Amino acid sequence: MTKDLFEKIYKNKGPLGKWADLAEGYFIFPKLEGPISNRMKFQGKEVITWSINDYLGLANHPEVRKADAEAGEKYGSAYPMGARMMSGHTDLHEQLQNELADFVNKEASYLLNFGYQGMVSTIDALVSKDDVIVYDVDAHACIIDGVRLHLGKRFTYKHNDLVSIEKNLQRATKVAKESGGGILVISEGVFGMRGEQGKLKEIVALKKKYNFRLFVDDAHGFGTLGKTGAGAGEEQGVQKDIDVYFATFAKSMASTGAFIAADEEIINYLKYNLRSQMFAKSLQMQLVEGALKRLDMLRNMPELKEKLWDNVNALQQGLKERGFDIGTTQSCVTPVYLKGSIPEAMVLVKDLRENHGVFCSIVVYPVIPKGLILLRMIPTASHTMEDINETLNAFSSIRERLENGTYKRLSASVAAAMGE
Ligand SMILES: Cc1ncc(COP(=O)(O)O)c(C=O)c1O
């Protein structure tokens, strides 16, 4: 008899699942309740929410809620049925694509049901086995999974490290010359954990020396960076040199769905070859109409982005003035690095939530080096100066308790349970 497939699952719940008993419901799968906003409820208490990617505060904006409700009333949640190619294509899908392409200064765009699948599928469609992929080692899981499908060579470069990028481009060039393929470089516009922008300008400059195409996942840059909000490429003055641009609706657009944008010929190829769209139901109309409304607001309400950046600057400046290490962020993503163990981090976050009413995400080893705690905050246009000041005071208090050993003492039993 062969082994039961589930045997390994019974024994090992995976790298995150192993924390379930200690963390589920609080640190992992917490339930935030009430309307999406700067303050929500967690376990019955009001908290300032710093963990929602609603950059422009659109999620609960009355105009957005109205547009979503009207579209729901008009179309229900089924329309249109079928994949785009078969029976799921409409004028509004086309209109949204044209408007998105215009907004990000590309010839054409194509809608994706989900950013994650769309990225995987776009990478899959862009390369064949003779091609070589060169990508940042800190890439988002959707890039890593897209690369996993690739049957040819791939090289990772050290995060945002130009020497490493060039070294790997040299390697890739050698392989591609032998195989007869081309090179795809993939970077994020903004790296979502630490907030650094991808070195797009410098990567583009390397096009003079090496022959490659650049694919940028700008999930966090779209709507937040650049003069018009067109993203990290616009911010760095290289939007036209990004060969394929990607953004999701899950952040600034406060919705679901995503798109890619590129030259018309490339989009025409992709729309016939993106397996995630060819073999899956079309983006539902409520989301399409909702995205048209949101895009209209991105274009015509620059005050949303201005408010977002006022808040980002106040929070980041305030943290720096109080001596916090916020790393090298160049975006709205605001990381705070503290020194401590995982058990200390757990007690610290509990203190933040229970006693200070501050809810932010916590990131620990193996995502960041052992001994570091990363508290990640996402300021939005709906935060207020009061939220920021309360949070800064809370941070000063938790740092004091971390440094004077309070959390170490309080976490001794958790540490013992975890075998730390
Ligand atoms: C960098 C990046 N790429 C892609 C995605 C996936 O997008 P979606 O949520 O639309 O699947 C995310 C997360 O939302 C992301 O942060």
Summarize, please.
With 420 residues, this protein is of the alpha/beta class. It is built from 18 helices and 14 strands. α15 crosses α16.
User: Helicity, in percent?
Assistant: 40-55%
Q: CATH homologous superfamily name of the largest domain?
A: Type I PLP-dependent aspartate aminotransferase-like (Major domain)
**Biggest pleated sheet:** 7 strands, mixed
Rg for CA atoms: 22 Å
Q: Could you give the order of strands across the largest sheet?
A: 4-10-9-8-7-5-6
Name of the level-1 CATH class of the largest domain: Alpha Beta
- The CATH topology of the largest domain is what? Aspartate Aminotransferase, domain 2
Global shape: globular
- Classification by helices and strands: alpha/beta
Oligomeric organization of the protein chains:
single chain
What fraction of the residues are assigned to beta strands by DSSP?
15-25%
Q: If helices are DSSP runs of H or I spanning 4 or more residues, what is the number of helices?
A: 18
How many domains, in number, for the residues? 2
What is the correct CATH architecture of the largest domain? Answer: 3-Layer(aba) Sandwich
How many strand units? 14
Ions, cofactors and other bound molecules: pyridoxal-5'-phosphate
Q: Point out poorly predicted stretches.
A: none
Mean pLDDT, nearest integer? Answer: 95
The span between the termini is 39 Å
Description:
By secondary structure, this protein is of the alpha/beta class. It folds into two domains: 31-55 and 302-418, Aspartate Aminotransferase, domain 1; 62-300, Aspartate Aminotransferase, domain 2, CATH 3.40.640. Helices cover 44% and strands 15% of the residues. The strands form three sheets. It has a seven-stranded mixed sheet, sandwiched between helices. Helix 9 links the parallel strand 7 and strand 8 (213-217). Helix 15 packs across helix 16. The mean pLDDT is 95.
